[in-house]
């Protein structure tokens, strides 16, 4: 199988940061897997907000990562690096990658791959790793969410937000979301959110108080930060956890530390991409054990918005930036 591999491939790169139009096809050598890596012939690549921020020049790839955008792929294993076992050429996988997904071939750490079970379409497989790893780690590992708790998720119809609704439902959480329009709120409710608050029409702090009978939520998954942080803290119950995964509303926040102390809050957050290979491998293992059975039996499927051919990556970014999408946008690189 590896004998048939081409020497060159098409990828989508950019010479200078800028708008979607800077994304252009480039011809590159097909990368060779090093120890512990596999080479994947890419079927689909997920598009994530961090790709947009990278393209704008505000989220540089960590040292050693490919400068080509793309943090998740599905495809077929075509070559194994030294020391890889458990995977074989021809196997369908999806993978969390630290870059390089917008390409015909992509390297992945073997222990950052998950098998694509029968019945899971490849476009959906590509849409899982980034949001699943991010939500699992931040909601359950950092935020200690447990069965019976209530969580507030901003960006309820984002790739991350839709995954938080689905996982929350499957793991016994009551999920309240905020969204930017009545239409998005309706979609979030269809997906299983217990309540959806149109934050442009309603004060979410007052609404959370009303919905929880003044108790508050146990956890806030926040992708806004800025002046949301103080408001989020007003939504938290005693011993509440506040988990920051993005700062779309500004990095600085002014909060009352006496409230953090007296109400015993925990403030935390994380970014996935720069974490160590070992961390990601452990997270992949945890997800394989805890979540993948739900993917295999069809109980968990990502919410899909749109697919664009690889050479229209710029249009995929335009769709994401327009903000009308619900769920995941993917690039179709090849069929199969
Ligand atoms: N920390 C990590 O490891 C990690 C990993 C992946 C993604 N992320 C971050 O998570 C976020 C979601 O990623 P994604 O790929 O799912 O992107 P996405 O689908 O484009 O979602 C972005 C969401 O942010 C919401 N939003 C933006 N500004 C807002 C504001 N001022 N108030 C309330 N909501 C606001 C939008 O909600 P409305 O349209 O309803 O306004 C939208 O649903 C991004 O910020 C991304 O950078 C973090």
TrEMBL record:
It comes from the Bacteria. GO terms for molecular function: NADPH binding; oxidoreductase activity, acting on NAD(P)H. Signal peptide: none annotated. Keywords: NADP, Oxidoreductase. Residues 18-331 form the Enoyl reductase (ER) domain. InterPro entries: ADH-like_N (IPR013154), ER (IPR020843), GroES-like_sf (IPR011032), NAD(P)-bd_dom_sf (IPR036291), Quinone_OxRdtase_PIG3 (IPR014189). SMART domains: PKS_ER (SM00829). This is NAD(P)H quinone oxidoreductase. The lineage of its organism: Bacteria, Pseudomonadati, Pseudomonadota, Alphaproteobacteria, Sphingomonadales.
């Amino acid at each position: 199988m590896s004998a048939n591999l081409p020497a060159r491939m098409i990828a989508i790169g950019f010479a200078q940061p800028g708008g979607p139009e800077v994304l252009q096809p480039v011809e590159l050598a097909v990368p060779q897997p090093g120890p512990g890596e596999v080479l994947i012939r890419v079927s689909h690549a997920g598009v994530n907000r961090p790709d947009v921020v990278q393209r704008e020049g505000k989220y540089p790839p960590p040292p050693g990562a490919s400068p080509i955008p793309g943090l998740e792929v599905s495809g077929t294993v075509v070559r194994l690096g030294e020391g890889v076992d458990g995977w074989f050429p021809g196997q369908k996988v999806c993978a969390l990658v630290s870059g390089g997904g917008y390409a015909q071939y992509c390297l992945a750490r073997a222990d950052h791959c998950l098998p694509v079970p029968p019945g899971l379409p490849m476009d959906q497989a590509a849409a899982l790793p980034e949001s699943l790893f991010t939500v699992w780690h931040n909601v359950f590992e950092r935020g200690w969410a447990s069965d019976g708790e209530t969580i507030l998720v901003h960006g309820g119809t984002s790739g991350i937000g839709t995954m938080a609704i689905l996982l929350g439902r499957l793991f016994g959480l009551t999920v309240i979301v905020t969204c930017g329009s009545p239409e998005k709120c309706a979609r979030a409710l269809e997906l299983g959110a217990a309540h959806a608050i149109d934050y442009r029409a309603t004060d979410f702090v007052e609404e959370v108080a009303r919905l929880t009978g003044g108790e508050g939520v146990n956890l806030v998954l926040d992708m806004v930060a800025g002046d949301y942080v103080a408001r989020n803290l007003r939504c938290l119950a005693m011993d509440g956890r506040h988990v920051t995964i993005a700062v779309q509303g500004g990095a600085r926040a002014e909060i009352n530390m006496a409230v953090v102390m007296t109400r015993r809050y925990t403030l935390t957050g994380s970014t996935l991409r720069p974490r160590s290979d070992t961390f990601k491998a452990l997270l992949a293992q945890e997800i394989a054990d805890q979540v993948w059975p739900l993917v295999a039996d069809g109980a968990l499927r990502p919410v899909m918005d749109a697919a664009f051919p690889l050479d229209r990556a710029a249009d995929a970014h335009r769709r994401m930036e327009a903000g009308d999408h619900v769920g995941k946008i993917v690039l179709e690189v090849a069929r199969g």
